[in-house]
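Problem: given the chain below (196 residues), write out its structure.
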Amino acid sequence: MRVPYAPKEPPTEEDKPVYERIAARRAPRPLIPLDLALLHNTAVADGWNSFIGAIRTKTSVADSLKELAIARVAVLNHAVHEWDVHAALALKGGISKEGLETAFAAEVVKKGDKVDFGEKGGLTKEQWMVLVYADQMTVGVEVDDGVAGALREALGDKQVVELTATIAAYNCVSRFLVALDVGECNGRPMKKVDDL
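Solution.
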């Protein structure tokens, strides 16, 4: 890690409620390196915890789609820890091993590229829409109208907003993890699908 981790215990009484809120969301696990990096500023850590907590637990997007999008963001941003955790959650959520292999290895679909949402590579039409949407949001930021429209037709307004917030949030997470080398993962390879 490029800066030392914050203490595992709150250094002041003022910090204690923030540590407790983050610990409550992580329970039964302890604080993770990401938390200990963020806790250099408890206000930032508290806001992050609230925002990511809502993304993780307060949206209506199916776990399979949400975790597929997060796993794809991890691949695109070379965020090893994010891939290792969220690819496993994508499998648990119902993405096939073949589909996850596709998410790991598929060519990036950029704005303006021809898009085929057919079922292939172990992914359904809807899962391909999510993958392409994640690609365009992550790599070029701008999304083709046709991609956004197809996704809106498949998921509806609320879930498109939730999925967009999820992809945006995990772009933030991955960029933070990689820039600071949180968890000392930058030099490691991402886990193979069979090893998740």
